[in-house]
Design goal:
With 808 residues, the chain is of the alpha/beta class. It is flat and about 105 Å long. It starts with 7 loop residues before the first helix and ends with a strand. 42% of the residues are buried. The structure holds one RNA strand of 83 nucleotides.
RNA sequence: GCGGAUGUGGCGAAAUUGGCAGACGCGCAGGAUUUAGGUUCCUGUGGGCAACCGUGCAGGUUCGAUUCCUGUCAUCCGCACCA
């Protein structure tokens, strides 16, 4: 019989409808027999349509989920929308569309496109961060943070975009430019809600160590945390007459250079400056300098690496605690108030930054480690690698640095002038934004009771409707303009109070969402504890790498906190996190919605169908690699699927045939492993090789076809469902992953490479059952160059190679 | 500057623990079918006439290196006045 040609449009629609109705991808809580497996794709940022980048992460996750279901797992593979944030608010500002409607439409859109792609999400678990049923629990988590002392409000200098009228995190304004509008960012004093993330630094490092993730991603997380071990040392501050005034703490990782200290430098913000006001003879100058630094943005301060600014503080000196020698005190804006103690001991001979500062301000230098310091500092890496000897360092002079360092540490501790400390560059998380479209803080300010948290039973505190999404002229959130929202009663004393009008950052909702999927409709807990326990950590989490460092660290932070308060059963949200590469356009640039030559997956689906779109993109390159998109080569996939379709006309026989048993078993093993590793490109290649073999032999048996279709289904769910139904009269999704048998993986006859002196001479076909002597015999017979007397040595690796080393 | 990753045909790319480099696909060339174009099918396809040479470059270890080691260059990413 000649089968009619494959109509992908009709067939793909047919199966979408069936899956919609039968819901075969439902995850079952507490399944009595099947083990659980949790596959997660980062949820959709609601901004428009699906783009190619989404396919890069969703399709491998979908293939894995489908594979695991065949293998007998109860798979949780959910999806949702990350909906609070700028796209919705920008759309509201530009077009007047209500952000709620924008989000509702956007989510509907991407969900229907996901179904079109054949993504086997459990759509009944779809969540959306801007849905009050969801953000109720984001607010609840904030209340717990507040209750447990992990959230606090403090005046601070924040990055502020005058154009967007909002504060920005350091990450949101890299390079001193606003991520959103590209405008110049300034420093502004505001009340800031901080979450005590810094306190979790070591725990986060533990999470980073335990998760399975690419090394470069782990490394950037470790950089972000920035752990550094050193010493905190007290330098007494004295006046002209040597009278002790205060103590200055400095942090250093190079205690071995302490005898070379020639000045100390304080961050301009350091509060000791105020305490010493009466002793500083040039306090007017000092105040002026402090004012000037405030005006300079963080970015300017950091980028002005060459032109160091600073100011000598007159009338006050520091004493080196080991020598009691007086050194000068400077204010310098290269010293960061937020790192270490906000003060440093400066050793110009051994730190290039101090060296340049000393040159500029004519501060003397003392060399304490051997090396040439005439033109630049001899820095740590250099003197450590050479294990240089100390000099000008009292009893330590002449000692190699590696011996001297522990002794100096010991001395500092014994003299009780310092201790070992660990510092982190990670900061507490500034957690409020002056935006409309975010979670309101469940907090009120009462003139009598101060900051008061809402009662948990009053959650969610819903976002009031408005059509004015702009902050006011002071940069306060749009919510501050809505008096019915702002004015309220204090939950504690019942008198008039005012609500917090800032909202939470976009990151809030995404910092716990994987937990909600385990129990998305629960209205008395963020998720039932037993369900959290049942589904456990996410086994495989796919998604892009763009915001991965921060997102995953925030996720670790909240998971640790929730674990500590008993709300979740584990410290580790994810077992394995896989960052996908980018899709590049024909210019080699990241393909995005805005790029002019961006190709929409919908366009590809429309022309070729979802199965082809899924397979072609992933045949182009590996999951973690950047993939240059091209239509070129797509015919390789279409013709492959055409050949698969035609298998229906090639069925001959029932059971697996001897001629195909090796190929089929190898295929099952290879493709299964590839799904597990998200290596779709090599899985596709293996499937093609199998089809090639079938076509050479001009037949496939029924059982071979059955197994082949199951193996292909995770990649091409539509066509395989259709063929399966036509041939076997039932639904492929109810089948099990075929088992392979080790004994069929290797053919008895195989080509053994024979080398002479490590160079390939010939490939001989032999039986796997032969032993070395027999193989040597065959090789010698076939290769005339090998003569008995010449053989010095034979290296034989069974199944791999035989190598004859001959006398020259 | 520091840290990480990656360098393989004309192109996208493969290669368990060190064991036939270039699987698979595209493209290209030749042939068959076709009135023709397209489709489909077959054959060939790293370079070189050859011996040989080939995985960024130069060394090293090894019977044997894309794989391990040392140095070096290039590209990409992350961090960056962090004391």
């Amino acid at each position: 019989m000649a089968t009619e040609s494959y109509d992908f449009k009709k067939t793909e629609q047919k199966w979408q409808d069936i899956w919609e109705k039968e819901k075969p991808f439902k995850a079952i809580d507490f399944h009595p027999t099947k083990p659980k497996y949790y596959v997660l794709y980062e949820f959709y940022n609601i901004s428009g349509n699906l783009h190619m980048g989404h396919l890069k992460g969703t399709v491998p996750a979908d293939a894995l989920a489908r594979y695991k279901r065949f293998c007998g797992y109860n798979v949780l593979f959910p999806i949702g929308g990350d909906a609070f944030g700028l796209p919705a608010e920008n759309a509201a500002n530009k077009t007047g569309i209500n952000p709620r409607d924008f989000v509702a439409n956007g989510l509907k859109n991407v969900i229907s496109q996901s179904k079109k792609l054949g993504l086997s999400f459990d759509y009944d678990r779809t969540i959306c961060t801007s849905d009050p049923d969801y953000y109720k629990w984001t607010q609840w988590i904030f209340l717990q943070l507040l209750k447990h002392g992990k959230a606090y409000k403090q005046k601070g200098y924040v990055n502020y975009c005058p154009n967007c009228k909002t504060t920005l995190s350091n990450e949101d304004c890299q390079g001193g430019k606003c991520d959103r509008c590209g405008g110049e960012v300034v420093q502004k004093e505001r009340w800031v809600w901080y979450l005590k993330m810094k306190e979790y630094a070591d725990k986060l490092l533990g999470n980073v160590d335990r998760i399975q993730m690419a090394e470069n991603l782990k490394q950037s997380q470790r950089n972000w945390i920035g752990k550094s071990e050193g010493m905190q040392v007290e330098f007494p501050l004295v006046d002209e007459n040597g009278k002790k005034l205060e103590k200055l703490s400095i942090f250093t990782t190079c205690i071995e250079t302490i005898y070379g200290v020639t000045f100390v430098a304080l961050a301009p913000e350091n509060e000791l400056v105020d305490k010493l006001k009466n002793h500083i003879s040039n306090f007017d100058e000092v105040s002026l300098y402090r004012e000037q630094t405030k005006l300079r943005s963080e970015f300017e301060r950091k980028s002005d690496q060459k032109d160091k600014t600073g100011l000598l503080v007159k009338g006050v000196y520091a004493l080196n605690p080991l020598t009691n020698k007086k050194v000068q005190v400077f204010l310098a804006d290269f010293v960061l108030a937020g790192y270490g103690t906000g003060a440093v001991m400066a050793v110009p001979s051994h730190d290039q930054r101090d060296y340049e500062f000393a040159k500029k301000f004519n501060v003397p230098m003392i060399q304490v480690l051997e090396g040439d310091v005439s033109n630049q500092a001899v820095e740590k890496a250099e003197y450590l690698s050479k294990n240089a000897k100390l000099m000008n360092s009292a009893e330590f002079s002449g000692m190699p640095v590696k011996d001297a360092k522990p002794k100096i540490i010991q001395k500092v501790i014994q003299m009780n002038v310092g201790k070992k400390v660990t510092n982190y560059s990670i900061q507490d998380w500034p957690f409020n934004r002056q935006r409309y479209w975010g979670e309101p803080f469940p907090v009120v300010f009462c003139p009598h009771c101060g900051t008061v948290a809402l009662d948990e039973k009053d959650l969610p505190l819903t976002l009031p409707p408005t059509n004015d999404y702009m902050p006011n002229e002071h940069g306060d959130s749009p919510l501050s303009k809505i008096s019915s929202f702002v004015n309220c009663k204090c939950p504690k004393c019942g008198r008039d109070a005012k609500r917090e009008t800032d909202t939470m950052p976009n990151w809030a909702g995404s910092s716990w969402y994987w937990l909600r999927y385990t129990d998305p409709h629960n209205d008395h807990a963020l998720a039932d504890f037993d369900k959290l326990k049942y589904w456990g950590s996410v086994d495989c989490y796919t998604g892009g790498t763009e915001h991965i460092t921060r997102h995953v660290l925030y996720a670790f932070f909240w998971q640790n906190f929730l674990y500590e308060i008993g709300a979740v059963p584990s410290r580790d949200p994810f077992v394995r996190k896989m960052g996908s590469g980018l899709i590049l356009d024909d210019q080699g640039k990241k393909m995005s919605k805005s790029s002019t030559n961006g190709v929409s997956p919908l366009e590809v689906i429309d022309k070729y169908g979802s199965d082809v779109a899924r397979m072609h993109l992933h045949f182009l390159g590996g999951y973690e690699d950047n993939t240059p998109w091209t239509y070129q080569g797509i015919t390789g996939i279409t013709s492959f699927l055409d050949k698969v379709w035609l298998l229906q006309d090639m069925i001959k026989g029932e059971q697996v045939s001897n001629g195909h048993i090796h190929e089929l078993n190898s295929l099952i093993k290879k493709v299964g492993q590839d799904y597990e590793d998200l290596h779709l490109n090599t899985a596709i290649s293996a499937l093609m090789i199998f089809i090639k073999k079938i076509r050479e032999d001009k037949f496939i048996t029924k059982e071979e076809l059955r197994q082949f279709l199951i193996v292909l289904n995770p990649l091409a769910p539509f066509i395989t469902s259709e063929i399966f139904e036509r041939v076997f009269g039932r639904n492929i999704l109810n089948e099990s992953w075929p088992k392979y048998d080790e004994k069929y993986l290797e053919k008895d006859e195989f080509g053994l490479p024979v080398q002479i002196n490590g160079r390939l001479a010939k490939v001989v076909t032999i039986s796997r059952s032969l032993d070395q002597t027999e193989i040597e015999k065959i090789a010698k017979k076939q290769i005339s160059d090998i003569k008995n007397g010449q053989i010095l040595k034979v290296i034989y690796v069974p199944g791999k190679i035989i190598n004859f080393i001959l006398k020259k």
